[in-house]
Amino acid sequence: MASQPFPRLVSLACHDLRTPLATVYGFARTLTRTGDLDERSQRFIGMIEEASEQMTDLLDLLGVAARIAGKRWEPALRDADTLELVTFDDERIAVSGEGETIETEPDTLAIALRALAIAAARYGPADQVAWEARGRQLALSPLLPEARAVVMGEEPRDLGSLVARMVIEELGGSLTLEGERLIVAL
Description:
The chain is an alpha+beta fold. The chain has 6 helices and 7 strands; from the N terminus they run H-H-E-H-E-E-H-E-E-H-H-E-E. The strands form 2 sheets. Strands 2-4-5-7-6 form a 5-stranded mixed β-sheet. Strands 1-3 form a two-stranded antiparallel ribbon. A hairpin with a 2-residue loop joins strand 6 (174-178) and strand 7 (181-185). The termini are far apart.
């Protein structure tokens, strides 16, 4: 058997993990829709659904990281508004400002930007963080001292942050610190 480069093996693993994950998520959604569950069971099924969605995002990020490392990522570029890229249905992440239309790979970039915000909140810790869009520049705050090294990738404790940097830089952007703010230039 020929040896496969590590990025190719990671890509294959991400692909192969999707099927059992989709099965778990599908059955959880089916149980939710039946409405026959007591409140406690409904809460547990909701946790399974949420964890499945998080695992899907992590697999997406890991797969992109493997393709970037293997020089095989071909982002599907299309127009996207920078304000929309940082607008999420997550009470931990606020958003303000004015966006600008850019050509980028919006699906992966949005997942990466969400990962940065979640890491800033988790490792801060902060109850809420906020993205401010100013055209092609996005500012995430507060980036508290406890979260800086993790979000900037200096302390490798968060997959989302590490891959976010790879994605942003591969798309021609950059990440810099400005006080308690992370500046993402796209």
